[in-house]
Amino acid sequence: MTKSAPLRVAIVQQPPVFLNLEASLARAETLVAEAARADAKLVAFPETWLPGYPVWLDEAPDAARWDHPGAKALYQLLAEQSLQIPGPHVDRLRALAARYRVDLVMGAHERRGGTLYNVMLFLSADGERHALHRKLTPTYTERLIWGQGDGSTLATLDTDHGTLGGLICWEHWMPLARAAMHAKHEVVHVAQWPAVGELHQLASRTYAFEGQCFVLAAGCVLSKADVLDGLASLSQTSGPAFEMLASMPGDAGHLYKNGGSAIIAPDARYLVPPSHEAAILHADLDPSLVTQGHLVLDTAGHYARPDVFQLSVDTRSKEGVTYTA
After folding, report:
1. Cα-Cα-Cα-Cα dihedral of 85, 214, 127, 106, to 10°?
2. Alpha-carbon distance 173 to 186, whole Å?
3. Which of 54, 148, 233, 320 is deepest in the core (most CB within 10 A)?
4. Is 220 labeled as catalytic in the residue annotation?
5. What would you report as the CA-atom Rg of the chain, rounded to the nearest whole angstrom?
6. Which position among 41, 110, 142, 169 bears the catalytic label?
7. Is 169 considered catalytic here?
8. What domains are defined for the chain?
9. Is 319 a catalytic residue?
């Protein structure tokens, strides 16, 4: 039975310090403190907020050219500014969650060996537990920089308000990934996006009704000034990385990501409609709506047909090389 105590949640729709991991983490600490002062018990950030979504993949004309100096320089910079898990930056996030007694969901880049991954980190309000999800399938140009996750990180986190889970971006268009997550009986699902456009709103609202859970659709606001200022914070105001970012269209105020974050109830209605301002969005959730919604739809229960359909999820970690003594 889903616990019925109200839950105040927050989505951070603010830009990071683009490509600067340390400065973005410091900004996250300030933003989580602000959300906590408004009594939030769950705080969610957008996709790869630490230290920013790689907008040059979509915007820079030469991003996909073979052996291009700018593409190589930006990949190196992103690798240098990515988390390692476990590591000191994850420890800071755990301490941040514990300091303000919030369950925290953070999008980040992870460096694992020589490959980068798009990850969601779930950090418990007691600071003692965390869970990790690596994006299963990077989309289109994202495959230039991220590897694929596996079934070992289809993660959820047990909280005082029930199961907290999430997926990243176009994973919400993977029917079997949705089915696997619905079977975990989420009360709150964080849908991370670079920005939440109309298509992403449809996916998020569909997930809320199909899973009979609350959905926090989290997107970022990011301008060209944010991008170049972030690079300048690393003392890079010239060179191949700067030139590639500067080649992106638009003036300083041009938005590459326009937010669109929203908070959605299990019946697919908006509790907080899409917003396009740099802000922190808040809502109070009534978890009893999850229980009530299961009267009519439980895709992992009375609305399943296991005699007809079965899904097997391989949760083993897949390593290219293993060593046996």
Report:
1. 30
2. 18
3. 54
4. no
5. 19
6. 169
7. yes
8. 7-293 (3.60.110.10)
9. no
